[in-house]
Amino acid sequence: MVLIRSLPIYLTLLLLEYALLVRSVYSSNAFSRVVQHTHQIAARHTRNIARDLRLAFGAVLVSDPSQQPLEDGRAVYCKSSAAAGNGGEGNNSSSPTETSSQGTGTSTNSATAGSPSISAVSTPWKLIEAHNGSDFFQGWSFFTGSDPTHGVVDYLDINDATSAGLAYVNSAGNAVMSVDTTNNLTGNRKSVRITTNSQYDQGIWILDALHMPTGCGTWPAFWTNGPNWPAGGEIDIVEGVNTYTNNQATIHTNPGCTISSSNSTVLGITGTIVGGTNCAAAETNNQGCGVRSSSDVSFGAAFNKNGGGVYASKLDDTGVSIHFWPAGQVPSDVLAGTPNPSLATWGTPFAQWSSSGCNPNTFFHDHSAIFDTTFWQAGDWAGSVWTDSGIPGQEQSCAQSTGYPTCEAFVMAEGSAFTEAYRALIARAVDWEVKSVKIYQYQS
Fold it and tell me: Catalytic residue numbers?
């Protein structure tokens, strides 16, 4: 009713402002100025009406905070040197350091814009959990303990993250998870790490995302993890650092899990082995065995500029396999919510760990899905490659591109460099923007 009563006010304002300008129509070049000014008035009031419509009818679980325009730039963060290697995201067990949104999600559908037509197919893989739309955060716990990877970050509970505008569902119905962008911080940055309340021994986890954090010093990840790391196993589905454009998928396990070869053709994958063939965390300084995607739009700024994409991680008796499809190339069965990995449309996985060298029933169990964004200092993956170059997306080192010799120096001095332009909007480069996370299980 407030909105309805306000509509005549907007119309009156338009008429009054237009009337005050009419007398200038007959002056030199006045007519064009009147038309232009009237258009500006209409646009301004249209935005106000849209705002009131959102206030009147918006009903998301965690609402989109108003955001001020930000300058274009890159996200920059560092991580401490307390943990070695690029793995060990680790502990996901529920504890007093987690706040939970009850439930295990909903079962509505979403689809990546520009993708092929949706076509349901027969499949033994059935949807058992979905997170999307206004209910996205239902069924996740907000982790608030010390970062298991020793990052310079403080994770917020659901109330603080919501109040700070670091976790919400935007007007497009997508979940956004961000970090504090305050300049000249002397302590840790505020961030969000969430874990699904559910746990599964096997399944297909499908992530449909539009945007992920990017920039020198950042380390975003989406993965599944079992208890008592690394005994329950870890499967890094999306992971990378700095300005990388090619995603790296990695598994971390107890001793005894290996890859049979370092040859991609022999393994039946499109990616490239990095970090060796021994997947045991304890025997590889937490590095595990990773595979770098051949797609240069599978991570970071390139992923964002391309409109995002879809990841599918399958864990079953045959082993672990991970697929990636850029926006516009997602198989129709996946979009329809009836994924069938046996179809030719899925193509060849970019990463795969066969049961012949790594029995999934031995090395993986009780997996939950996790999102986080953590930050680096010298000595770890992003920090240790601060001066490296020649990596896809990091052809020039962060030291060269920023002009700072260390990650820490750059972060402390350039705290405002946290934004980027994408999809004709200004958005923080450290944002996750996720359309959905869906989990399927095999039912014969």
Answer: 234, 239
**Contact assessment for residue 295 and residue 324, using Cβ atoms and an 8 Å cutoff:** yes
**Greatest distance between any 2 Cα atoms in the chain:** 87
State the burial class of residue 359 (Cβ atoms within 10 Å of its Cβ: 0-12, 13-18, 19+).
Answer: middle
Q: Distance between CA 197 and CA 159 in Å, rounded?
A: 17
Q: How far apart are CA 243 and CA 417, in angstroms?
A: 14
Q: Which amino acid, residue 319?
A: G
pLDDT tens digit at each of 444 positions of the chain: 434 444 444 444 444 444 433 333 333 343 333 334 433 434 333 334 333 333 333 333 454 544 433 333 333 345 443 333 444 555 544 444 677 776 666 544 444 444 457 889 999 999 999 999 999 999 999 999 999 887 778 999 999 999 999 999 999 999 999 988 777 777 888 999 999 999 999 999 999 999 999 988 888 999 999 999 999 999 999 999 888 999 999 999 999 999 999 999 999 999 999 989 999 999 999 999 999 999 999 999 999 999 999 999 999 999 999 999 999 999 999 999 999 999 999 999 999 999 999 999 999 999 999 999 987 654 455 456 778 888 888 888 988 988 888 776 776 666 565 556 444 344 567 799 999 999 999 998
Six-digit token pair at 250? Answer: 């990695």
3-class secondary structure, 31: helix
Separation CA 162–CA 165 (nearest Å): 5
Answer yes or no: pTM beyond 0.85: no
In 234-367, DSSP assigns E strands to 234-239, 248-252, 272-274, 289-292, 309-316, 319-326, 351-354
Specify the pairing of strand 189-191 against strand 153-155.
parallel
Q: Are 148 and 89 in contact (CB under 8 A)?
A: yes
430 near 153, Cβ under 8 Å? no
- In a 3-state reduction of DSSP, which class is residue 366? coil
Read off the DSSP letter of residue 151: B
Query: Each residue of 237-275: b (16+ CB within 10 Å) or e?
Result: bbbbbbbbbbbbbbbbbbeebbbeeeebeebebbbbbeb
